[in-house]
Amino acid sequence: MKSLRKGLKVSTVTTLALSVMVGCSSTSTPTSTSTNSQAANTPASSTAAAATKAPDGGEKVTIRFTDWANNEEAKSTRVSLDAFEKAHPNIKVDYQNVALAEFGAKLSAMAASKTLPDISTMLEAQALKYAESDILMDLSSYYKDGSVTPKLESNKFVTPDGKLLGYSVANEIILLHYNKAMFDEAKLPYPPAETEKAWTWDQMLDVAKKLTKDKGGKHPGEAGFDAKNIVQYGINVSHGQDFFWTPFAISNGGGEVSQDGKQLLLDKPETIEAIQKIADLSNVEHVSPTAAQSSGLPGDVGQLLLSKKVAMVTSGQWELVNINPQLKNGLKNGIGVLPIFKKPATTNTGTPMVVYKSTKHPNETIELYKWLMDTEKNIANIDSGVWMPTEMSWYTDPEKIKRWTQSPVHPPEYKTAVIDYALKATYPTPWFFLPTYSRIGDVLNPGLDQVWLGTKSAKDAITEMMPKIKPIFESGKAN
C-alpha cells in the first residue's frame, strides 16, 4: 500500500455500476496504463483469443492483472511477474498498473463494460461491494487444501455467509513514525517501542508540547506562545480516513463497530471522546497542524520528517517506502507504538488480491494468485518497507524476521514496535468483514470534516450522522 496522504478518501467514494456486473467477463482489454515491460507490448485483445504457442509447444495463454501500486511497488511487481513468466512459460501476464486516484472508477468502468481483468488488487472498501454482486471467486478451497500458504486471520476478506474473497497481499498497521534527531536535540527519550510500555494519551501530549515551537521558540502553554506562527509541530495524527483514528477509539473502549460486526459503536461516549481528543490536538492544544497549516507542509511522511516541521506522525507502516529515500539525506527515522487511552490498539489494513469468476483461464489465474501471495516471491516490496508479510512464520521465525528487517529503513526497534505489536494489538479494520463499511464511510468521513476543522464538536457531528448511518448498518447491504 502506498502513502495515502494525497487521496485518503478514494476507497470510500467510488460509485459502482453494480447492476451490470453480474456475469461480467474478461473479453477485451480496456485502455490502461501499463508498465514498460513485456506486458506493455501485448496488444489489446480478448483473453480467450490471447493464446499462442508456449516454448514447449503447448498453448500459451495471456491473463490480465490490474493493480494500483505506486511506482516503486510497480517496479518490484514487474520483477516478480517476469520471474513468474519464466517459471510458467505457458502463461503471459498483461500487467496493467492504474493510478490510485483513478483505480476505483477504472475498475467500476471495467465491470460495467464487462472487461474485468482475470485477477486484480482492489481498494479495500470495494471488496464486499463486488462480492455482493457475485463476481468474485470464493478462494476457500485453495486455502483448505494447502494450495496457498495460510495467511494472518486479521487480513481475511470474508462475506457474511462465509465466502473467502481472499487475503490482503500485504499486512499493514498504523504506527508512530518520528525523527530521532528532533528528540535528540530536545533531549527527550524516544517514543516507546514496546506494546506494554506505550505512552498514555496525556504522556504523548506532554511530549508533543515540548516538541512544538512558535517562531519565538515558545511552547504551547507558555506565556506569549503564538499559535498562529508555529514553526515546528510535535505530532500529526492522521485522520483523513477512519482506520487512522479508530485505533484510539478502540483503545478507549469504543470504535466503529464491534469486531464481530454486530454492534455499531460510533455513538458510544468512548468513541466520541477519542475523536474529540484527536481534533483538539490541532484546534485546542496546537501541537498538530490544522488542515490549512498542513497544506503548507512538505509532501509525504518522509519529506515531512526530514524537514523537521513535524517530529512525529501517526500513519501506516507503508510510509517506510517514503521514508527510505530520505535516509541518504540524513533522516534518522524511528518507529514507536501508538499512545493509548485504556489498552494498546492498532488497526490493520491491506489491499485484497481477488480473482474474478469471469476469468477464462481459472487454473492459470490461480497459479498467478498463489505466486503473488507468496512472500518469498515478492521480497522486494518487503525490503523497500512498503509491505509487511501476511504469513505468521514471518512474525515468529528468527531467520525470516532477520531477512525481513535487514534493510536500513527498518530501524533497530522495528521488531518490537512493528512485528510484536502487530501480533499483540491488532484490530482489523471493518472493511474485512462488514458489508456496509463503504456506505457508512460515505457518510462518516465527510461528516467528521467539521470536527477536524474545529467548527463542530465530535458529539454534535456523530449525533447528526447517526440517523443516516444506523439504517445503513442495519440493512447489512454493501450496495
Largest pleated sheet: 7 strands, mixed
- How many β-strands, per DSSP? 14
Rough outline: globular
Poorly predicted runs are: 1-50
Structural class by SSE content: alpha/beta
Binned, the helix content reads 25-40%
Radius of gyration: 23 Å
Q: Count of DSSP helices?
A: 20
- The fraction of residues assigned to DSSP E strands is 5-15%
How far do the termini sit from each other? Answer: 25 Å
Write down the overall mean pLDDT. Answer: 88
Mind explaining what this structure looks like?
The protein has 479 residues and is an alpha/beta fold. Helices cover 37% and strands 14% of the residues. The strands form three sheets. Strands 7, 8, 9, 10, 11, 12 and 14 form a seven-stranded mixed beta sheet that branches. Strands 1, 2, 3, 4 and 13 form a five-stranded mixed beta sheet that branches. A two-stranded antiparallel sheet has the order 5-6. Helix 18 (437-447) packs antiparallel against helix 20. The chain starts with 9 loop residues before the first helix and ends with a helix. Mean pLDDT is 88; it is low at 1-50.
